[in-house]
């Protein structure tokens, strides 16, 4: 057979391709499954993949979407497009010490296009694109699996043949409905993985096209090899994993195109056999193509390294505790345990969680830990598969197993902690591409069972059952990703030891105003992780608002002790100390916060309030001015400047500040109200009236707006209008300070006027 030939002269590749169709065993022969034309097979896969995740189309922005999309200035039109190439995925400068170095400019560009077309942050468009991308990838998988399972073979006209239509359809369906993909599809930030996978597959298919027969009769097309390298570069600009496609292309070339027998090659190397060309290593074009792939990959990595800078990303122990273990043994054991858990998620994707860090998976510190069994099981299976892939006499089996393992392992390498520390324990999104290898191995196993089974239809029904269960699991998991409340609560049963899960549930409750329930979850987060400074900060904030100042101060003090550069905790500590009337300590805390975060407008605002309480008016005005310089839309700082200048009799300056503020924030009714008060005192009644009425139109239920307009009319002499607005104000707030007294004065004046008139 062709697959076992190792002649001194390499056979013509064109002849090989045409003859392989007759010599390769057919994987579909013993499989009881649906046989559909290519078009219908792809239509079915597209429809089923759409069905799995369709209910996520109208979900909210959840979890990491807030940082990567809503708070990412790179999505806004005012940010120059060039900035995308110097910022990380989250909008931070790559040169920053806090950057995670996740360089995905093309993914961010698609978010920006979504934002511009939608005219704002409307999640529907973002979700729809993700669903379409997954459907497209699933359709491409039909072609990819036909190559992996049936081989790369062409007709006389140069058209690629699908020699495994049934098994390639099954594998594509398994991929399309795998529940572990939910995070990538239903979570908008998962688009990085989807785009990476799309160009990854296009790169692989492009590389396969390099060996299609052409008119010139060349063995391969350099053009398509270069296209494949370029698509690999694009994949990496969507997510770092994309670069691994070049390694897979090299493996594919060696094993499928050149029929390299790895075991035979190793034996020849060990015996120093000089006839290595017999093993296929030096066949025409292989080394040249491998050199092209390696050169392209090295160039891409070098350019990325130059853009990213030499500094590694900064992660903390809670992100990936095993990587911070002192013992090499502990690190190795836990890394391998993480691999086994990833494998289990592929085999049984029932326990899914949005985050697996912060104590979710306790470290294995001893060989007596029963979880060592999982490692043993993983490596028992892997070694068995590797032995079969290397030692089997069946070249068809060697090819499928090697490619299956290649797709399973190679795309996973960047997340393996082997080359650099990653910022997670387990992330379901990173096994989107490795699941291709799982689907290959599962389908091949199914074909072997079908060959041995007498009742093949029962086996087919069982696989159909698995597909149906996965579809239902995808739909359920997609619904959980529709809102943060459902997503976070779904994790409580999966990772009850994960402090971040409790923190996020608490934060979600706090955002909805349920502080009592939020306190419970924040306390549990701190109990599970006594160094969880963000949970301490948020809990301290709630206790501060509930006037439980003593405990709030203790928590915030502990937070800044654990993390001295935690600017937000320093500011909140300053607020608590201010409430406790420990003004010097509060001022010191505010300045420490500003030291660690120089552009901190909210801290300058709070510092200004402290100075105002101490009657240090110039310092207060300077602090608020700093806040507005850093954040021109900081309405509270503008308002406080106007009010302070008004109260100290600086009406002209107050008016100037008010007008400046309204130019920047023209629709802020609170600024209209403050400036209207100043103009009224300056006897600019007409302009003051116009601003009051505009403010009331924007916020008609503000009693103070009606009350102060009534005072204006009272001064102006429009007594009937004054009476009307006093009455509206008292109706909205019967206890409004001063309004009742002013109203009574007006009534007495009206009575006196009536008597005089009578």
Structure description:
The protein is mainly alpha-helical. Helix content is 65%, strand content 1%. It has a two-stranded antiparallel sheet.
Q: Roughly how many Å apart are the termini?
A: 123 Å
What's the main sheet like?
2 strands, antiparallel
Q: Approximately how much beta-strand content do the residues carry?
A: under 5%
Structural class: mainly alpha
Shape type? elongated
Tell me briefly what this model is.
The chain has helices at residues 13-23, 38-53, 65-70, 105-118, 123-150, 165-176, 182-186, 191-209, 222-238, 244-257, 262-270, 286-308, 328-347, 372-391, 395-409, 434-452, 456-480, 484-494, 499-511, 515-528, 533-545, 549-562, 567-579, 583-596, 601-613, 617-630, 635-647, 651-664, 669-681, 685-698, 703-716, 719-732, 739-757; strands at 153-154, 160-161.
Give me the secondary-structure topology.
Layout: H1 13-23, H2 38-53, H3 65-70, H4 105-118, H5 123-150, E1 153-154, E2 160-161, H6 165-176, H7 182-186, H8 191-209, H9 222-238, H10 244-257, H11 262-270, H12 286-308, H13 328-347, H14 372-391, H15 395-409, H16 434-452, H17 456-480, H18 484-494, H19 499-511, H20 515-528, H21 533-545, H22 549-562, H23 567-579, H24 583-596, H25 601-613, H26 617-630, H27 635-647, H28 651-664, H29 669-681, H30 685-698, H31 703-716, H32 719-732, H33 739-757
Antiparallel strand pairs: 1-2
Domain DUF1736: 311-383
Transmembrane segments: 131-151, 188-208, 220-237, 286-305, 372-391, 403-424, 430-449, 458-476
Membrane topology: Multi-pass membrane protein
């Amino acid at each position: 057979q062709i697959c076992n030939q190792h002649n001194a002269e390499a056979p013509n590749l064109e002849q090989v391709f045409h003859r392989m169709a007759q010599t390769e065993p057919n994987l579909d022969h013993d499989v009881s499954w649906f046989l559909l034309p290519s078009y219908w097979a792809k239509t079915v896969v597209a429809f089923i993949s759409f069905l799995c995740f369709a209910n996520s189309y109208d979900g909210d922005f959840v979890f990491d979407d807030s940082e990567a999309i809503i708070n990412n200035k790179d999505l806004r039109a005012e940010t120059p497009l060039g900035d995308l190439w110097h910022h990380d995925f989250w909008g931070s400068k790559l040169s920053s010490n806090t950057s995670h170095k996740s360089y995905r400019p093309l993914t961010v560009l698609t978010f920006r296009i979504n934002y511009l077309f939608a005219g704002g942050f409307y999640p529907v468009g973002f979700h729809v694109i993700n669903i379409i991308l997954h459907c497209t990838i699933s359709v491409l998988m039909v072609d990819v699996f036909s190559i992996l399972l049936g081989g790369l073979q062409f007709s006389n006209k140069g058209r690629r043949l699908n020699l495994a239509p049934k098994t390639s359809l099954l594998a594509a369906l398994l991929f399309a409905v795998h529940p572990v993909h939910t995070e990538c599809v239903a979570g908008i930030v998962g688009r990085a993985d989807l785009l990476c996978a799309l160009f990854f597959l296009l790169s692989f298919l492009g590389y396969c096209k390099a060996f299609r027969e052409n008119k010139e009769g060349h063995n391969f097309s350099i053009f398509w090899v270069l296209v494949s390298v370029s698509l690999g570069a694009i994949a990496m600009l969507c997510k770092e994993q994309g670069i691994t496609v070049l390694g897979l292309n090299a493996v594919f070339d060696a094993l499928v195109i050149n029929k390299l027998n790895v075991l035979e090659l190793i034996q020849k190397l060990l015996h120093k056999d000089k006839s290595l060309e017999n093993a296929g290593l030096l066949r025409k074009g292989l080394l040249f193509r491998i050199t092209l792939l390696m050169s392209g990959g090295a160039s891409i990595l070098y350019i990325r390294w130059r853009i990213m800078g030499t500094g590694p990303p900064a992660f903390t122990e809670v992100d990936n505790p095993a990587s911070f273990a002192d013992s090499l043994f502990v690190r190795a054991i836990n890394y391998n345990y993480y691999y086994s858990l990833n494998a289990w998620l592929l085999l049984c994707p029932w326990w899914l969680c949005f985050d697996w860090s912060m104590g979710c998976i306790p470290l294995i510190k001893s060989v007596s830990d029963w979880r060592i069994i999982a490692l043993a099981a993983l490596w028992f299976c892997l070694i068995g598969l590797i032995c079969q892939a290397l030692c089997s006499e069946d070249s068809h089996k060697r090819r499928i197993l090697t490619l299956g393992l290649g797709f399973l392992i190679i795309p996973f390498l960047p997340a393996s902690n082997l080359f650099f520390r990653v910022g997670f324990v387990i992330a379901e999104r990173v096994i989107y591409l490795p699941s291709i290898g799982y689907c290959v191995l599962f389908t091949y196993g199914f074909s072997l069972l079908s060959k041995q089974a007498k009742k093949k239809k029962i086996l087919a029904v069982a696989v159909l059952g698995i597909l149906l269960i996965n579809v239902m699991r995808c739909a359920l998991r997609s619904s959980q990703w529709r809102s943060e409340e459902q997503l976070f609560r779904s994790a409580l049963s999966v990772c009850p030891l994960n402090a971040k899960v409790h923190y996020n549930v608490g934060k979600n409750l706090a955002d909805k105003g349920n502080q009592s329930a939020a306190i419970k979850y924040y306390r549990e987060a701190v109990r599970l992780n006594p160094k969880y400074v963000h949970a301490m900060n948020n809990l301290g904030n709630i206790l501060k608002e509930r006037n439980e100042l003593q405990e709030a101060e203790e928590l915030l003090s502990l937070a800044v002790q654990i993390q001295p550069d935690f600017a937000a905790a320093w500011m909140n500590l300053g607020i608590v100390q201010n409430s406790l009337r420990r003004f010097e300590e509060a001022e010191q805390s505010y300045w420490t916060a500003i030291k660690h975060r120089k552009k901190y407008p909210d801290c300058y605002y709070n510092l200004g309030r402290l100075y105002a309480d101490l009657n240090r008016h110039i310092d207060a005005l300077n602090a608020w001015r700093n806040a507005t310089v850093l954040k021109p839309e900081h309405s509270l700082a503008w308002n406080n400047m106007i009010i302070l200048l008004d109260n100290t009799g600086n009406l002209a300056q107050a008016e100037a500040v008010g007008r400046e503020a309204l130019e920047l924030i023209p629709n802020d009714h609170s600024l209209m109200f403050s400036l209207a008060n100043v103009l009224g005192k300056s006897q600019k009644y007409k302009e003051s009236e116009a601003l009051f009425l505009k403010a009331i139109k924007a916020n008609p239920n503000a009693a103070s707006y009606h009350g102060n307009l009534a005072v204006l009319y009272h001064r102006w002499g429009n007594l009937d209008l004054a009476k009307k607005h006093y009455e509206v104000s008292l109706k909205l707030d019967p206890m409004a300070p001063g309004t009742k007294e002013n109203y009574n004065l007006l009534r007495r004046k009206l009575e006196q006027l009536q008597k005089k008139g009578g």
